[in-house]
Write a structure and sequence with these properties.
- By secondary structure, the chain is α/β, with parallel strands linked by helices.
- Among the domains are: 138 residues, Rossmann fold; 141 residues, Rossmann fold (3-Layer(aba) Sandwich).
- Helices cover 47% and strands 17% of the residues.
- It is built from 15 helices and 12 strands.
- The strands form 2 sheets. It has a 7-stranded mixed β-sheet with strand order 9-8-7-6-10-11-12, with helices on both faces.
- Helix 11 links the parallel strand 11 and strand 12.
- Helix 3 crosses helix 15, helix 6 packs across helix 7 and helix 14 packs across helix 15.
- The longest helix is centred in the C-terminal third of the chain and has 26 residues.
- It is globular.
- The mean pLDDT is 97.
- The structure holds nicotinamide-adenine-dinucleotide.
- The site of nicotinamide-adenine-dinucleotide has 25 residues, from helix 7 and strand 7.
Length: 412
């Protein structure tokens, strides 16, 4: 999907925020430079005895406001530039939501569909041991992202703990509940996307009851967002995965059930859609929840949705953004819309530190509080400064990191 570099998009967004905040060229230098970049070779012994080499990455973009935090992606197209871009976005996201974290990202250039379960485990453990010196609950805390899930987090936690000599649940988030995971983490990003969609509908004075939604991506973010929105009374009319889209299903729950048993979303009775047809549906809310660069200068012109809620990271290129703005489409930017995941990851880390676990209601309430507060701040900034919501969200996040830099000063 990546045609324009995600790093170009992320740097353009930062440049704009620096201009709007009237920060100096020195500030730009400090803010646009990742702090630590690690590339590792990850050897994997395949089940047939062959050994293959994979590239692994970990980028700690910022640690100014606390330990760095960010997902681990298993995807054949991940490279260092994309990892830097995603780590940069994590930095602004954590600052925007006021979590005591910097930003990070990591991953392995591998198609996880080609791995057996035991190969996936060996690859995850070896990657963890390669990046071990720079991660830890006080240094850098990985989490799941595209192509990884709670099983990978369990293996990462175990590998780190075996080397430490004792159990360290706080080294990763998104773990299984029995290993110190948090209730509500699995659905948190999708729940946050749903909160964002409801708030955006309020801003545009559209009744959520019966409002229509199309979602690109039916993974951890897309599926849970679809479920949450359906439960709130919206009508999810189309979803897609890597192989294309479908419309004409009666409920998301039914489609998910079919997907679980058949491994594809082509349920009998549904109609097929291409990715572009899904993006161009006449719906109230469009949710890109797959990969970067799906809304480009080319694809944006056909978008008819009133609102775009970015479940994915960097799904809109600067060219696509310009067209959405011209069409007066309200865009809830990624660093706000998908922040539910890192917010509940933060709750998980806090619970692990305290060895005291919250109820599902406590998690839900606290997630809602932080998202609503952040939403109001962004809405207020956008109105006051007459800027887009993306610009407003970046201004808040970037200004907090810039201020923290100034207050800490430069060592030595
Ligand atoms: P996932 O691996 O669980 O799901 C990805 C989905 O996208 C799958 O349904 C896949 O089939 C689909 N997909 C892949 N390539 C596609 C393409 N070219 N066209 C259409 N669909 C395609 O990943 P996820 O965790 O749901 O992450 C999705 C996005 O959300 C990523 O950008 C990720 O960085 C972002 N995100 C995830 C979380 C989280 O907690 N998982 C948090 C914040 C942001």
């Amino acid at each position: 999907m990546t045609m324009e570099s995600t790093l170009v998009t992320a740097r353009a967004q930062l440049r704009r925020a620096v201009e709007l905040l009237e920060l100096s060229e020195n500030d730009w230098q400090t803010l646009s430079t990742p702090r630590r970049i690690l590339e590792v070779a990850v050897p994997l012994r395949r089940d047939n005895g062959n050994v293959e080499m994979y590239k692994g990455f970990r980028v700690q973009y910022s640690t100014t406001r606390g330990p760095s935090k960010g997902g681990v992606r298993f995807h054949p197209q991940i490279d260092m530039d994309e990892t830097v871009a995603l780590a940069m976005l994590m930095t602004w996201k954590c600052a925007l939501t006021n979590l005591p974290y910097g930003g990070a990202k990591g991953g392995i250039a591998v198609d996880h569909h080609t791995l057996s379960l035991s190969e996936n485990e060996r690859l995850t453990r070896r990657y963890t041991s390669e990046i071990l010196p720079i991660i830890g609950p006080e240094r850098d805390i990985p989490a799941p992202d595209v192509g990884t899930d709670e099983r990978n987090m369990a293996w990462m936690m175990d590998t780190y703990s075996v080397n430490a000599g004792f159990s360290v649940p706080g080294v990763v988030t998104g773990k299984p509940i029995v290993l110190g995971g948090s209730l509500g983490r699995t659905s948190a990003t999708g729940d946050g996307v749903a909160i964002s969609a409801i708030e955006a509908l309020r801003v545009r004075a559209i009744d959520p009851k019966g409002a229509t939604v199309a979602i690109q991506g039916f993974g951890k973010v897309g599926y849970w967002a679809a479920m949450a929105l359906e439960n709130l009374g919206l009508k999810v009319v189309a979803v897609s995965d890597v192989n294309g889209g479908v419309t004409g299903f009666s409920s998301v729950a039914q489609l998910w059930e079919y997907y679980q048993s058949n491994g594809n979303i082509g349920m009998p009775g549904t109609d097929k859609l291409t990715q572009d047809e899904l993006l161009h549906l006449d719906v109230d809310v469009l949710i890109p929840a797959a990969l970067a660069d799906s809304i480009t200068e080319k694809s944006a012109s056909g978008i008819q949705a009133r609102i775009v809620v970015e479940g994915a990271n960097a799904p809109t290129t600067p060219g696509g953004d310009k067209i959405l703005e011209e069409k007066n489409i309200l865009v809830v930017p990624d660093i706000l819309a998908n922040s539910g995941g890192v917010i509940v990851s933060y709750f998980e880390w806090v619970q692990d530190k305290q060895n005291y676990f919250w109820t599902a209601d406590e998690v839900k309430q606290n997630l809602n509080d932080i998202m609503m507060r952040t939403f109001k701040e962004v809405e207020h900034m956008a109105t006051e400064k007459k800027v887009t919501w993306r610009e407003a969200a970046h201004m808040i996040g970037v200004s907090r990191v810039a201020e923290a830099h100034k207050l800490r000063g430069l060592y030595p």
